[in-house]
User: What shape does this take?
Amino acid sequence: MDFKLLSACFGALFISCHASFGQITDNPKVDEQSAPYVKIKRVELTDNNTIIYLQFIEKRTPQPEFRQPRSLPLPDFRQGQIPEQGNQIWLDPETRLYKPGEIDKKFKLIKAENIPTATKKKVAEGDTVDFVAYFERLTPGIEEFDFYEGRSSGGYQSWNFYGIHIKNPLKKQVQKSGAPTAKGTSPATKPAGKPLAKAPVKPAPQPQKEKTATVSVIQGMVFNAKTKQPVAAQLSYVENGDTLQFKSSSGKYRIGLDAGEKYNFRVTARGYYGSSFTVTPGDSSGRASLEKDLYLTPLIVGETILLPNIYFETSKYTLLPESFPELNQLVEVMRDNPDIKIRVEGHTDNVGDFDKNLELSRQRAEAVKNYLTEKGIDTARIEAKGYGGTRPLAKGSEEERKKNRRVEIVITEM
Assistant: This one.
């Protein structure tokens, strides 16, 4: 055989084999993930599929000097009902890939290898499981995507990855040559006659509308309220009766939510006073992605911190139950920082009798102090003081004056 011809054949074979392997990204960068014990080893794009190679590592439980029988479940999620039998893993068949912020553009799971999707697989301490998930092919040009298994429930932790960066460039458009088409012979003209009746045309079937995805995404950054620098933080929220946590070492977070639910979030970080907020994705005017940056106040001497969710009966100092979550958060801060001492400050607006307002603000500060001491905080660590309407934050309308009716704490010692 001609050597040049043989070389050309081998070259064509090499090119075809290389093309069949598609675009490969080893150990892709992942911005955030819900479970640290699962990682993405590789993403491969072929003509028809997005193939994701993953690895699950079941951590070992430290052995105490005298091993006690375990009567409680292991702290890991996805655990079995009987701890001695080990944990269980599987991949939800509804797992899909999304382009961040465009949840209607999804790519479905086709199949999985070495991990079940209809049943569960037991794993023992220290086990490593390598498995592969095949999805529909990502559209060329999508070089960042989310791997979303679902919302955690029933004590099981879903495996969600946010911001997976891969190589997936747009395909180059091949320009068609503008060569003129060959002239054909003009058809012979038929003699005029009675026009033929047109056959009835059936209307084209309308494509079935795909159900709108009910998943929404909330994302943003957690910052130091003073320096505006990112803060490593933890976000906790309840979904379907389960308390879920999302930890971020960089301050960046991205969490998938049910668009039809209401969520109460709590944000905490070591050395900071936490924050709470409520979000209902369905009220976001149809947006698939909600942006919310969060700012935490550092715990430093002299810092004044507003307790935003403290409520009393009108013109009284009786705490309402809606105040308890905020006060319980303050209790935890005091327990986690045993050297902190605080001053609870009560404030009212300047409408009404000055002396009565002053007394009411003092009584409300005392009510907060009493709640803390009833929860076990040493009374010597808490001072209570009322300022009435002498330190207003706002003037003007009734809506503005509401800001003056508040409870604050000041860190006096650490």
Notes: The longest helix spans residues 354-374. The chain has four helices and 24 strands.
